[in-house]
Amino acid sequence: MYYKKIFDLLPDYIFIHDKDGYIKKMNNTSLKYFKGCENIYTIIKEERIINKIYNHSSDLPLKAGETSLILPNRDKIVINITSRNFETSFSKHYKLTIFKDITHVKDVEKQFCIAQKQGAIGAMAAGFAHDFKNILNNIKLYLRLIMQSGDLSQVSKYAGIIENMIQDSNNFIRHVLNVTRDTSANYEEVMIAELIREDLNIIERILPKNINIDFIDMAKNAIVRLIRSRFTQVIFNLVLNSVEAIGQNSGDILISIERTNINEKPFVKLSISDNGPGIPANIIDRIFEMFFTTKPNGSGLGLSMVKMAINDFGGYISVESQEGSSTTFKIFLPEVVYGESV
Ligand SMILES: Nc1ncnc2c1ncn2[C@@H]1O[C@H](COP(=O)(O)OP(=O)(O)O)[C@@H](O)[C@H]1O
Ligand SMILES: [Mg+2]
Q1: Which domain covers residue 275, as residue numbers?
Q2: Where in this chain does the record put each Histidine kinase domain (predicted)?
């Protein structure tokens, strides 16, 4: 009895079918979308995976692969398929095939690719930074010519050249900003703790062994309004900076959220601290600047993007650091409170 309940309650899509794919039973999760479906192979469609399941004959579980499905409600999900053989009392050869919905994991992986793309953009930007310097040097040169020239027609000619050069650099900055902003994404109201946990699930998988990361939620059920993908970039960038700061030493990163007020309005304060080397006082005011970096291969874009995202979400970011012992980034995001007039 209980087993049947558990079978039905599991969030995975579970099917019991024969070798030829004919479905004998499915759990409630599967029924919701695949009721009336007779053969599991018509759901999977991908021949490579079907062949694997069909040909699998050992007692060991089979990792059949990943594929995507369009559900009847038009949602597209990505699933990971496992299958194993088993016998029933009728001693028939049945297969238990399970689809695990990994849509979110795939989403986060995509975000990670975007973060990496930003790395590429950073490298690109380093190249452009060089061009930038040239432009500035040229502007300086023409300014000097203006200052030395008594001829008014020459002055306006040089001024025109300078104006064009400034326009060029403006276009470039706009270009960099546009590629790094995911304009297709939408605002959502989300439970911030859940989002952080989802990101941490991925981060923990790739975190170096010498670094420990913890999350404390002191803002139970707090909801904020933001663009999911950009928030993930914020977390990734800040954690990555901490990881890079800690380096080979062993270190801790602590993420925490709590409720607070700013001008009597409810905010969620998100803190990300590390016990790395800290930020020297003479550069701390510059770290949010575009292209400011102290790393040989840094892009100097991470924090400027973080700040841009947080400001777009209607929030604020600040930093505190003790040289030689710790760095804490504090982010304040407006809390969405339902049922209250603004
Ligand atoms: N957690 C941290 N600990 C120490 N220094 C940091 C930390 N986060 C950022 N910084 C400093 O801020 C600079 C700018 O960071 P960022 O904008 O992400 O660019 P990048 O990581 O490419 O250098 C870094 O080069 C580093 O000097
Ligand atoms: Mg960085």
Answers
A1: 187-334
A2: 127-337
